[in-house]
TrEMBL record:
Pfam families: EF-hand_5, FKBP_C. GO terms for cellular component: endoplasmic reticulum. Residues 155-190, 199-232 form the EF-hand domain. The gene is Fkbp7. Residues 1-33 form the signal peptide. InterPro entries: EF-hand-dom_pair, EF_Hand_1_Ca_BS, EF_hand_dom, PPIase_dom_sf, PPIase_FKBP, PPIase_FKBP_dom. Its EC number is 5.2.1.8. This is peptidylprolyl isomerase. It comes from Mesembrinibis cayennensis.
Amino acid sequence: GTVPRRRPPRSDMGRGLTLLLLPLALLAAPAQAEGGTATAAGEEVKIEVLHLPEVCSPKSKKGDLLNAHYDGFLARDGSKFYCSRTQNEGHPKWFVLGVGQVIKGLDIAMMNMCPGEKRKVIIPPSLAYGQQGYAQGKIPPNATLIFEIELYAVNKGPRSVEAFNQIDKDSDKKLSELEISQYLKEEFARDGKKRHPSVHDEILADIFKKNDHDGDGFISAKEYNVYQHDEL
């Protein structure tokens, strides 16, 4: 049957704290064995464009924050194992493209895609859940997956140069505790939720613990930019 069209809610969900603290997409990537994935020869993602809007921009690239609905089916019998419209009150999913928040096949399948575009993609097991499968998600071993994807929004990613420069008020290419503290205050004020002051301190401490790798009290452009954009 056809799924009734739902206008995606216009929201700033993709902004806010996600700039620093990323939500994990539900179809998270499986933990990879050391040395990355061994893709069997000739196995690749097959992409069929079902709908392309007349104005197709911006096109998605690695590090962008995407908002999409997707349905997942097992290729062998066409049974549906996942539907984003029935989860999370039907809100489309937000995730960062190309950084392993979703299975590798989806990271590949959703590159160069524009808002309003629909695709049907076939993902081989080596770019999905491989020999292990994913019992929790009802995906058997060695399963080829089919996804039908509708993309709604392509935003600048959380770890983009723009986001860094926005926080780096004195433009010294490193983020001080004060700068990030100020940024958190602005973000908290923007969403208007009441929070205990200790929450601010905990998040600030956590950000430095996870990002200040050399422990110098600053988060450098390189430390912040975990997704290895080339521009910084």
